[in-house]
Amino acid sequence: MATVKASDAERTLASLGAQVSVVLLYGPDAGLVSERGRHLTEKTVSDAQDPFQMVRLDGDVIAGDPGRLADEVGTIAMFGGRRVIRIRTGSKNLAPAVEAALAAETGDTLVIIEAGDLAKSAPLRSLCEKARHALAVPCYLDDARDLGQVIDSSFREAGISVSRETRQWLVDSLGGDRLSTRAEIEKILLYTYGQDRLEIEDIQAVSSNVADLKTDMLVDAAFCGRMSDADSTFRRLRAEGAGAHILLGALIRHAVALLPHAESVARGEQPGRAVENWRGLFFKRKPAVKTQLEIWGPKRLRAAIERLQGAVLETRRNAELNDVLTSRAILDIARAARSKRH
Prior knowledge:
Order of helices and strands: HEHEHHEHEHEHEHHEHHHHHHHH
Low-confidence stretches: none
CATH topology of the largest domain: Rossmann fold
CATH architecture of the largest domain: 3-Layer(aba) Sandwich
CATH superfamily of the largest domain: P-loop containing nucleotide triphosphate hydrolases
Number of domains: 3
GO molecular function, one term: DNA binding
Helix content: 55-70%
Number of strands: 7
Shape: elongated
Number of helices: 17
Keywords: DNA replication, DNA-directed DNA polymerase, Nucleotidyltransferase, Transferase
Protein name: DNA-directed DNA polymerase
Structural class: alpha/beta
GO biological process, one term: DNA-templated DNA replication
Radius of gyration: 25 Å
EC number: 2.7.7.7
């Protein structure tokens, strides 16, 4: 059949005809692959928990015995109606087994195959894109429009209104993985049960950990060159019980996350644009991160990562000097940022 565009995936699956016997769901968003597989199963059979209506098979087992899938497809449901076979691909090539099943054209079974990110030349993807009774549906990470649609449908079904500002706040807070997005929204729905309106404070209460917010304050103070703020925040976090290695790890993770955006800026992208393209970045941090992209180039960031990694090793060798070594490393980062600003 014709190649399905990512933007047409939901509409195509919603109107799936009986002539389609194999649906391949593939892409980097494992959560979206799983969600679409589940929704398609529930749409096709009356009881997805009934083993006579829905069967799960291992991809590598089927690949090792290509004729088995054709036999399963030809099996008639005990009480009539359509059956579903869900397969998760493994390390072996599943294409020969799927090709045999498509050639058999017996029974009334829908085969749903869930795969990772497949290249256009991958045998399984190529087969499902070309076969008359198969469909290959891409599942890419959610962009802002996709996230907005998920938010709108979730809260509309729950009878909870969401203002434009709160909706945008939630879009900016969520990442691109559908499974993680659903989990966060589910927590918010549980927290707001009985309410008729969602407020930013509700999201903050559920999705934000106070310790994480303070750690972000430390990270941004250091990488923006605010030495006094970095030092005082570090001391406060340590007094509250935050581990030195945890704080160093947070700085390292941020530097690593900042690096590809710094490389984009080095290639000519404006810092503000790079910040807007950073999916999942908490909106209140955007001004600080923009400042950091104006300060830190790729070469200096790599040096900062090396310095912080060295500090981690030093704290492991000299546990009694944790505070001194960690504080020194944080202030070195802040000092380097400050020297660039001035």
